[in-house]
Amino acid sequence: MSEHVVIVASDGVANLTSMAKFMAARQRRLKAEADRIQAVKEQGCVPEVCGDAIPEAPARGAIRVFQPVSLFPEGENDWVARPSGYRGRSAMQRADVFDVMAAKAASNGKPAPFTREQVAAGRYYRDLVERHACAGVRCSSVEAIRSGGGGGSGSFIDAVLRDREEIERIQKRIGTGTAMAVRKIRPSKRGSRVNITDRRLVDMVCLEDKPISAVLRAHGWITSGQYTKTLCSALKDVLSRM
Asked: What is the DSSP string of 82-107?
């Protein structure tokens, strides 16, 4: 069953011009909607090298493809590194902000903005904070936790305390410095810009998965090349300290 739309003027005569415009606008809307749906499907597309066992999931977000490698025995006393993906296939991992920034730099023909050690430090801090936040410990007092009951839960609480102490050590290395400060700017021209502290910079990038541009906008700064370069350099220094 097909649908027909006829636009009739006040004198009862069909207005072919208006009808043609209506149909053209309708075709544009249908094409825009089809393009939108196709774009959503492409976001969840699984690369062929990863096989068909992984479901398509547009909400998964950006991913990176890698080949798992494991050590296998060779002979009596030797080991060799070989690909260990399922059925020899590559694996997928959700891309974090460091992967996204590295991919963007590579697309512009530039090297990765951070070293492997700096990225590892940022991810270690993120994993540590997430694990500690999900520990399920309701009491925030270390003394109260130490005086808690036993029953085999001591090892769990000890692990939670170790994570908390490690987080505090890392945060001390981050310090209370300022990555970008509003200096030598008249109050009338500062607008909504505020200082960006080292701690807030690290937390937004590592814990909230925000790129440098989002950090600048959140503090009222424009995303110019100069400010981005300055803030990126400050983040490098902090990650090296961590």
From this structure: EE--GGG--EEEE--HHHHHHHHHHH
